[in-house]
Amino acid sequence: MGLALGLGLGLNRRNGVSSFADKMWASYVSLNPGTYSAAVKTEFINRCKPTYVDSAGTGYYYNTFGPSGLNKTKADWIYFLTGNGAGSGGYAVKSGVVIRWNFGNTIISTNTPGNYNVIYVSLTSTDGWTGVTDFRILAKNYIDYCPTFNLPNVTLFNCQTNGFVGVVPNWPMPKVTACYFNSNLFTGVIPDHNVPLCVTYSPSANTGITGFAGNKVITRNMATDASNLLSVPTAGVDARLKAYNDMFAVTPPIKNLTLNFSGANMGIPTGGSSNADLLGIMATFSSAGFTATIIIRTS
Q1: Model confidence pLDDT, tens digit, residues 63-105
Q2: SS3 string of the chain?
Q3: Is the dihedral of CA 296, 269, 222, 203 positive or negative?
Q4: Which end of the chain is more exposed for a tag (fewer CB within 10 A), N or C?
Q5: Per residue in 97-131, pLDDT tens?
Q6: Could you give the C-alpha distances from 224 to 77, 111, 183, 227, 228, in angstroms and in order?
């Protein structure tokens, strides 16, 4: 099916038109690995052609980013598929430039667009996303694979309560302090997010998630790790508790901490509430004058 689509799009091409569109699609898939439907691919490629018409004029993507524009080498904008229900939109703050939202044929340049009943939503800016400091699309009816947002300066990120599927992306967010991707349909293992400043981390209520690839998220800055309502087995919960205990044994705590590994599909830590690492964390915090609250499944 994918081959037939590719051949069909190859007919009657003109230099600089379809070549740019194909280049951007390849770049987008490279930046955002995942499986995409033929309809998503077709819509994306069409929007990168000068023949695409929207309320801002003809061929916005091509004229702004293509051979007649900035000549972008990568598709560093954001592109969503929605459940075709009211609620698509979001909130994005970017220093210096107002982000452009494209809801079907409705173009809005604002940080806080309203809700639109459309199938495709895209966000663009001429210089990518390095200036974004606050990005929230919670409860907006977005589905399919979640883009690998490149947000190196974002401090608040929230994509919770949507219908995103597949593996959680490894978003580059070294400055994020609050990261919410709970209540989606993510599956597999959470990548080793490098978020050294993170205070609140919430992957909860993704029952298809089965583990953690690493422990970079564990630092003394953490105050709340809401990794509950997942499907992580006992070995994974044990490993997470051990990682916290090992870290705080050599890096004294500086604030209270809440860890939540509860849920019907979560593994019971070895030893239950008498787990050695669990007790070790609590003892370390108590000695430092802080409180560690650790919630686990016990039966």
Answers
A1: 888 887 888 888 888 888 888 777 788 888 887 677 888 887 7
A2: CHHHHHHHHCCCCCCCCHHHHHHHHHHHHHHCCCCCCHHHHHHHHHHCCCCCEECCEECHHHHHHCCCCCCCCCCCCEEEEECCCCCECCEEEECCCCCEEEECCEEEECCCCCCECCCEEEEECCCCCCCEEEEECCCCCEEEECCCCCCCCCCEEECCCCEEEEECCCCCCCCCCEEECCCCEEEEEECCCCCCCCCEEECCCCCEEEEECCCCCCCCCCCEEECCCCCCCHHHHHHHHHHHHHHHHHCCCCCCEEEEECCCCCCCCCCHHHCHHHHHHHHHHHHCCCCEEEEECCC
A3: negative
A4: C
A5: 778 888 877 888 888 888 888 888 888 887 778 88
A6: 31, 28, 16, 9, 11
Residue 20 has pLDDT above 50, yes or no: yes
Q: Note the pLDDT tens digit of each residue in 248-262.
A: 999 999 999 999 999
Say if residue 5's pLDDT is above 50.
no
Contacts of 45 (CB under 8 A, 6+ apart): 9, 18, 21, 22, 24, 25
Q: Please tell me which of 43-57, 142-156, 263-277 the model is most confident about, judged by mean pLDDT.
A: 263-277
- Mean pLDDT of all residues in 120-149: 86
Main-chain phi, psi angles of 83, to 5 degrees? -85, 15
> What radius of gyration do the chain's Cα atoms show?
22
- 236: its two tokens: 């994974």
